[in-house]
Fold this sequence. Notes:
By secondary structure, the protein is an all-alpha fold. It has helices spanning 9-40, 44-53, 61-64, 66-73, 113-117, 137-146, 150-165, 169-196, 199-206, 209-219, 230-247, 259-280, 289-303, 306-313, 324-351, 354-362, 364-374, 383-404, 410-429; strands at 97-100, 129-132.
Amino acid sequence: MFGLINLTQLQRLVLGIFVLLLVDIIWVASAELTKYLFDEYKKPFFSTYLKTSMFLIYLVGFIFWKPWRAQCKKKSGVYDQTDSNDGSSERLLSEPVYVPIKFDDKNSGHESEDSTSLGNERAVRFNSVSEVRQLSESQAEDAALARLSYSATMRAEEARLRAMSKLPIEHVAKLSIIFCVLWFFANLAYQEALKDTEAGIVNVLSSTSGLFTLVLAAFFPSSKGDKFTLSKLVAVLISLGGVVLVSVGDLKIEQFPWGAFWSLGGAIVYALYLVSLKRKVDNEDKLDIPLFFGFVGLFNLLIMWPGFLILHFTKAEIFQWPTGKEWLYLVANGLIGTMLSEVLWLWGCFLTSSLMATLSLSLVIPLTMLADAFVREVKDYNWEFYVGTVPVFLSFFAVGVLSHYENWDPVLVGLKKIMHCITRWRLEVR
């Protein structure tokens, strides 16, 4: 995406962290908008369905983005290698087109001047049309590359290899069908949990997505950055502990919160969605992310609509058309908080690692409260909030360092040194 294949690993990591932090800021603004919306319109399924279907807008790119249209026109046999081996050059050329010839000299088009001067009855006549054939796309591309300089040829070859490694449209559409369902239910679970459960409990349980991501990535690794280490496990647990401290003021458990099941289910499905997609596509240059989400919106629109009927007739969520003000909130939240942020978030995941992407979700909680403290001047936060914010941010950047130094596990090294010291001390005592 954006042709960043020449970036070093460190540059990709720094860019990925910046993108994830930008997404967190967008999500904080989106969360503030959702608070106003859910006070008046508590329809989680409708909200999730509408915002996910808005991804369909990305498919408008077929009108403006030529490479997408070219993939649709491309056939599996524009240039067949087997045809070039049988010695027939006709198959490398297009059908002939006959173009009229324009002569500058009035006498040069029909008879040869030499023949008339000798008085010979024989005359040389030229055809008034010329036959024009065009090379196939692959042959023409090779001919154009042959005329370039060495450096320009290398750049063009890199661009061509990058384009060849990109998934074709039919494969992107197949991926979108699978991950459309996972993405939809992960977001629906979070919305349902917020409807019936305290925000503090939902935030704590949703932050366990990082733990599930770490476990799933250990069993289904997609890159070296997703390798399981003890240091990453400690960082995730520290982040989870920080989220508990930050949210302790909202943890008012008077009876069992049934929304906890929605929160845990959403955390598991979100981790499964991210790890599975990262395993299918290990590099952002192989996948057109806007195209992927465009198909997600299309299939969501076509597949998920029966949910309205089921929820309405079972009275789990009575269908109600939003008012004009509610439509404004829904569309604005969908454009910024879903369409833009999800594309950037998935791109940040490819640039860093799946674990860092899920840990960035936890940063939204303290950032939202900080926004309330400085923007709305809310001053009733307790000391646990300010103490808990520190480990949440530190664990996020710690995982970034661990992702860069892939084979470095300081916790494991420290444990080995402690065990070595204990063993040596026991031998000295004996």
